[in-house]
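Sanity check

After download, print the first record. It should look like this:
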Amino acid sequence: MDTENAVARFGLSAGHSLVRILHSLARAGYHWDPPVPSRYECVFLEAQDGRLAKEGCRLAVRRTGQRLTWHFEGREGEHEEPFGGDLSLRSLPSDAEGFPSTVKELAGGRLLFPLVRLKVVAQTVRLQSPSGSRLSLRAERAVAAAPWDGLPKGPWPLGLLSIRFLEGNPDALLHLATYARDRLGLPLGSGDLCRTALQALRLPEPGAPLPTALRIRPADPMALAGRKVVGQQVLKIRANVRGALQDLDPEYLHDLRVATRRLRSGLRLFAAVLGPKRSESLRVELSWIAGLLGAVRDRDVFISNLETQSQRLAEAGAIAGLLAEELHRQRGPVREALEAALTSRRFASLMHRLDALASSLPPRHAPVVPVQEGAPALIKKAQKRVLRLGRTIGPDSPATDLHRLRILFKRLRYACEFFRDAFADPSAGQDPLADYIEAMVRFQDCLGDHQDAVVASGRIQALAKDLVQRGALSSDQLLNLGGLIQVQREIATDRRGRLLKLWRKFDKPAVRKFLAALEVSSPPAPSTGALPQGPGHSGVG
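Expected structure tokens:
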């Protein structure tokens, strides 16, 4: 039951007709108005990171007869506006004309994509409880299809009953929900119609929390925790592969690359409990796909930076635009290579092996070390490597040392994030790793800007040389290169200055001793003792 939105949802099987439910409620003293039927087709839309659903909102394009509308449902109710497009949409900017202002605010300019396509028949009934409170029942039957398959066909296998409180005593919702569960035998629903359809189709929902089976707990054996980490990242890879393949939004590619990086880091971190040979073999295969992802993503970042810089470089802005055009041309072949890899048997085999590892049983002879004991040791080990190199960094340190420090910071940050939930207690406001992770994020961002600027200087010169040889760059345009390269040097110099200040804040006793907070964190929750299923069997991935 969603008490914040005053709604309870239940699964609705073929044997639970609305007529039978209403007759049963009549015997319990409820009265109702005549049911209002409706029939429509719709496409639910969401941002790549699921930011609408995180705020308790849903957005859909609906077709009722010949009428097309936006349908927005949020915490403050429902809203409809006419829509001038059609249901075959591929993506839409969130600032499109006719969007509710709330959507524009929540989406923050991000693109919106189809999540799932549905055909729905529904009946809505207003009820009056024996105490006089007003509620509504909405019975929905639907058939669903993936967003890339077009509108669905066939029978109505999905059923959902929603009970919403309207006015009177709020306890009336609880009473009716209890009656539906205990007297009518209706199973609790796991979400609205959109989420129910996604789960039935085994499609990931953007921004959805991790399944409970994949959450790491303090009492979990380290061997189990390692398998959960693998399962978590495989789930995220699957959630972004199709968006990356269709080139819908750069964020799909970015998140796919990050999940691959985290998975490689997790296999390194847990190699002892996952099997060193198996972990190394999987890391090699992940390096293959990571290289292809990086080739596309690095160009996307470089293009974005050049286009931003070209707007403030006066004469040099023209050369920045030319270089961006050349990068767009080069992007085509590397994207084709990535698409071939993501649809290859080799990648399918890799995902199958990762699924098998995530759902495998640890060796019987493996030592049983719980996370609350094993995690601090792994974090300290990663922390020691960062501190050892970081304390040697100075104003004149070579870029290679700074890049190496960035890699070590990532491994430390990933280790902390893998175990963060195990030591956090949201109900008590405890999150001992939060400040430490935030400090690392600031440092990583600064190191990343420095590395991008250093790499950009070399790439600008290489691109210009290639354009000159092809006769695509005039001598006058070549003179403007100096201004563009100077921008990269200024960025690199600025970030070096920031790094030293950030390091002094990071390398403090109070920060370095953060692990002591783990000793007094909330009591460990008992482990279920059950190994998680691989994401391919979780009903989500």
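If your output differs, re-run the checksum step. Summary of this record's structure: The chain has three domains: 7-200, 209-369+530-541, 371-523.
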